[in-house]
Amino acid sequence: MEHRFYAKRKSLIPQPFLSLPKAVRGPKRLFTHPQQVDTLTFYTLSDGRKRVYTSADALRGHGTEVILAPDEVSYMNLFINGILQSKQSYAVAQGKLIIRTEDIPIKGTPIILQMVTIR
Q: Which residues form the DUF4183 domain (predicted)?
């Protein structure tokens, strides 16, 4: 039964066509377990003057108190005041973190070096 005010009209717009893809079943794949990942974190606070921080500058009781050599880890991230820094803005050596930026973080700014090892 048609509505008396809205009679069916022929439209020039074609009806939508819905095409569902057919799922193809391929060979079964075996998934390997994720590799083991270890994360060490070095925490220190800026003194507002120096660019080179050593393992002796670590905050006691927070994270690790050593800075590993770059060849001992898979990759590193440096956060200054919670902001991820580019690789060009710092250098890392065994027991040493060197900040290469033009300016120095103000006194009390947290500096976090994240060292990730994937086995």
A: 44-115
